[in-house]
Amino acid sequence: MLEVELKARIQDPEAVERRVASFARHLKRVDKTDSYWHGPDWREKRGTRGFRIRSEGDTFVVTFKSKRIEGGFEMNLEREFEISDPAVFEEFVRRIGCEPYYRKRKIGVAYDYEGMTLEILRVEGAGSFLEIERLLPTDSPAAVEEARAGLIAALAKAGVPESAIEKRTYSELILGAEGISIS
Hints:
alpha+beta, Hypothetical Protein Pfu-838710-001
């Protein structure tokens, strides 16, 4: 699946949530903790070679992505699988040379609107955001462009201007705030 996503900074999360709740279906409260890891060869080969372990309730999912960012839109070809014991998995990946990189926690609420997921989130160390994403079964240019147009329309319907779209990744925001270079 190809994930097409944007995130926009929001100043008043409660107002944005009220607006989103007026047109979208409430899904759930979210509390996601992501632990990001470098692959064994990260020092020699830069790029998207790592993975994340997401903890959400009693569910633990490993995700690795092929990512590209175009004009504030993130396009991710994601691969995921569940693990039953994150501590054992972490021990395993350390043994093969992987290293922890940073952690991210997102707390908020999720809504569904016309096949898109809208999340109003507080991201520790980065601020408050509206994330909008759509999963596509294909990466055809027409499907991607249609998804991008839908995300922009949902952003406007939520009352958030396009100028609020954050072009940096969360890793750039969080690690930059901590004075850590990600290059």
